[in-house]
Amino acid sequence: MRWAFMIMLFAEALLTAQNVNYQQDSKWRAPDEAAAKPNPLAEKPELAAGGKKLFKRNCMECHGDSGQGLKKAADLQLTVVQEQSDGTLFWKITNGNPDRGMPSFSNIPELQRWQIVMHLRTLKRSDAK
Amino acid sequence: MTARIIAFAVLLSSAVHLHAQEAPYFVTYDHHMEEPGNLEIATWSTVGIPRDGQKLFFAPFSEFEYGVTARWTAELYLEGQATSGDSAVFTGWRLENRFKPLKREHWINPILYFEYEGINEATKILKEVVGNAEVSSERNADLARVHAHELEAKLILSSNIHDWNVSENFIVEKNLSAEEGFEFGYALGESRPLSKLASGAECRFCRENFNVGAELYGGLGSTNGFGLHSTAHYLAPVIAWQVSDNSSIHFSPSFGLTNVSYPVLLRFGYAYEIRGFGSKVARMFGGRQ
Q1: Domains identified in chain B and CATH numbers
Q2: How far off is chain B from A85, nearest CA to CA, in Å?
Q3: pTM confidence score
């Protein structure tokens, strides 16, 4: 009986924990100091290839292989995303937005997070959506 | 129904991506949570190398870790044990929940951990070490008859300092089935990836796929006698290798530091992660993703 209850509890968590469709979160803003931080790898564009690999590994599931955005995750090709500073994107990758289901990726080494930012800059811009 | 069961099996066997840079610790927890909707399935084992008067044992356990939200991770464990010259027994299950109270990353990141353990006295996975060390000469069949309902809480503090992770766990455990008081323990861990940068090539043996470190853990007595007297402590180098995008292998030899510790505990494990598991299951049962 106790087993059945625990399994039901686990299944309930699986079924109810999904987020609603993605909408921009205007409250999710990087502090000015973080937003102004320059990418320390900016002079080494060849490192974006490593960022692409990391993007595939960590981001593609929700943001799509071209960053077009799947499920509730943001379309990273949008100008409103691409206009954000490197420091802002780095801060958002580092902290996540737990209320909207985006986890923190602070477990990825700092320079590798900057590599992901470099890859984000290679995504095709689109204002179609 | 059969179609759903087959679909579920396909879902479980589908190759998907493992979260990068998972900490290599076996005992210590850091502040990183499972990604929401992802299910990690892992099998871990502890092998106890005996000293005189002890017996070699092998204690495997399975772990199912699910990211309920970005700030809540739940885990179910099933465990067993086999002792040399004795029998193999199922030793119980554990249900664990970790909560991240703060939204953002900080210099020190706290995590609150609560676990219920429905185990028996034959358990030897040593997922944590608390209280005083006990050496039992009873047979598995007798130990398995003594059930224990235990509650465990941990305060997990974790920091990312440059590329190092430094984590401290403070543990308190209460056996509701016996008059043992509250038992205390600790775990400390430090780790880092071998490479700060990711190479552009798909490679299995790249330095960035390896995460190495060390952990120190042990018991601190109980409310019946707090302190280091007659407690087990271990120092363990740890290594995790991300074999592919969807799987990782972990290994750690733990060395006993006191005469009531096992001389060596060999720990190893394999983990893989199913991304978007929750939404796939929800869709299967007619829910929204």
Answers
A1: 2-284 (2.40.160.40)
A2: 19
A3: 0.86
